[in-house]
Amino acid sequence: MGEYRTQMKIIGDILSTTRDDLQDENGATVTYLIRKANISHSRISRILKTLVSQGLLEQADSQGSNRYKISQTGREFLQAYHSFSKFADDFGLNI
Q: N or C: the chain end with fewer CB closer than 10 Å?
């Protein structure tokens, strides 16, 4: 059975995917992010809405579907998240 992922870990995975995994400069589709994050459509929809409203992701309409790209603020957040996550791991804590 897989390891339980916190909301923070899922957000980190989504931001990392939109930063690292895209060959398409138009951004990631919801379907692509669902597959990469391995979560339901309704859950990822709520998370994406929050990330866009917080300025961590940019939403664009491309060929009739929403696509998502990481923003500069999202890059800064992701860097801080990785730093803190490593720090917490050094103390045996899960975030």
A: N
Q: What is the domain-level CATH number for residue 46?
A: 1.10.10.10
Total domains in the fold of the chain: 1
One-letter-per-residue 3-state SS of the chain: CCCCCCHHHHHHHHHHHHHHCCCCCCCEEHHHHHHHHCCCHHHHHHHHHHHHHCCCEEEEEECCEEEEEECHHHHHHHHHHHHHHHHHHHCCCCC
Instruction: For 12-62, write each residue's pLDDT tens digit.
Output: 999 999 998 776 678 899 999 999 888 999 999 999 999 999 999 999 887
Q: pTM surpassing 0.90?
A: no
